[in-house]
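Re: the multi-chain job from yesterday

Posting the exact lines I submitted so nobody has to dig through the queue logs.
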Amino acid sequence: MRIGLCRALHTFHHFALWNSFLKELGFEVVLTPGTTFQMVEEGLKVAPSELCLPVKVFLGHITILQQKVDAMLIPRLVCRKIGNDFYFGCPKALALPDLTRAVFPNLNEIIIELVIDDRIFSETTALVHFARKLKVKKEDALAAYQVAKRAARAANELTRQIATPMHMFTQRSNKLFLKHNHFEIKIGLIGHPYLLFDEYLNGGIFKFINSCGAEPVVLFPEEKQIIQNALTKNTPNWYYELELITSARQLIQDKTISGLILFSNFACGTASVVNELIRREVASRRNIPILTLLIDEHTSETGLKTRLEAFVDLLKVRRQK
Amino acid sequence: MKVAFPYMGDIHLVLEPILRTLGADVVIPPEPNKNTVAIGTQIAPETICLPFKITLGNMLNALKSGADTLAYVSGSWSCRFGYYGRLQADILRDLGYRFRLIELRRDRIQEIVRTVVELNNGSLSGAVIKTLKAFRLGWWKAMTLEKTYKALRETLPLVKQPEKCHRLFDEIMKEITRAQVIKELQDISASIAHRFENLPRNGRTNVLKIKLIGESYCTIEPFINFNIIKRVGEMGGILEPFLTGPRWLGFHGFRIGKNEITFVQNMAKNYWRYCVGGEDANSVGHMILACREGYDGVIHIHPFACMPSTVVQPTLIKISQEYDIPFLSISVDEHTSEAGFITRLEAFISLLERRRALSKKSLTE
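And the result, structure tokens for all chains:
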């Protein structure tokens, strides 16, 4: 049985876990290739215009996937428990299976939800429930979960060392981001992995920053730090955004970072709150320039590059003073 | 303590007497207008939804008129609404205002109770009695308001001079605002139907029935939806909103009408399994309800880039195809012009009228 996964949204966070879980149970995992122009076009055709770009791209991936698989894993991230509090996914993450079903009525049969809701049950139970729908015994699912958990931990460790989750999908793409030319200027990049590391969506931002004479820095906070930050008073209630806030807080404390780029997409609901929050914190704690890059399906490479060049120039001038 | 809360439809008519009975002073900010939007847009994050901007401008006005405490309904949930209170307070504090923030959320109930007891000089029994009294008055105000809205909606398409109808409505609203004891409200409530019946009729018998669903602020606040209920009334249709100010309070603030919520959300279960906030499951449920009850059309109104409303849109379109019911989705932001809005509304109404005429013809043939 072939089970499909889209290389979009949550997969950038949880691919290692889901992949090894499904493989351990003996299923064949079909992962869509990286985003292409055609996929974005397909997504734009079926999605309502006001949706955010990553979800449109996700729907584009599904159009590719639908002919190739017998079942699809579509996550519904409702809430995760961090510390004593519950942190939710954004509405689009919460309603993803419902949205997909509404857009593709013919896929009703093969969409299988993976509901993650820590208020009701743990991650283990969530995966066991998911496996039940594929007619897998509980004991087998539990054993597979143990293996998957280990794989996920190893993948997370690697992510932190080389600062990109791309190694989960392929081993080769890491090199793209790791050209350490020892530039004087380091720029901290803050953004969701599904936007920042999607080679089509990011518009080659890592390459551009390098060619402008600066080094991009991406941080993946450890779980401990995320929990610590969840305890402070001024955090939003969203799960993935907690990661962004934590990495922003760490980047601000790093004295070698001379500028920050907030990389998000137009009409991202959580970004309007989180970017504001990060900007306020940066303004009050450390006097450091900040550039907000909002991309959408119409963003051109030239426009992106011009803004980056101007930003790097500004940082250089500040450094000379 | 001078409390202020965001302006939304007529909820201040219900909340003001409640808070006053509890012993607090209430500052009611001026009604939202173009200026409020301008101020709010200036100081709010750029890409946030329009209700945030309007309520922010509104609270700024309230602080200018002397409020020292801001009260928000809030909570930890996936919609941005749960974060309104804290972010707005941050922005306003940065502008130099000093105030106290009360978040009305489930895990802060202790704090709220303590505040009420504090207002009664520390007497718990006094606070309980006052609370009961306050909520009884609030309940009656809400019920009278509901009855007035209903009478207005149902009479407006049938009267000869709509201005008279509006004048009568304003008159009754003033009376409700003035009323201090439950007896007065009961008298008003009893006379409403009679007073609306006395208006001269235009002889129309064929009235369109349309359901209004969408995000709560857009559905309730007449400023942001360009008075859509009265407009449709004048065009000859009854626009039935799924939510009104008083009902919003009952549904969400104190959860009085929980049965209706569960009923409607169960109805939506086939299409929408999880409620994400922003009235999405209620919208879906009410739309299905409207289809079953034989409404002529459904209007969905939401702020631009509202997170839950954009995700729920494909589902609503799917329902409208399955049940074969005309569906109009309007998103509003600070640049929406009244003329464009009204044009789309008129086009939709004339579509519904044609559909009705055609179906009648096919019935007689």
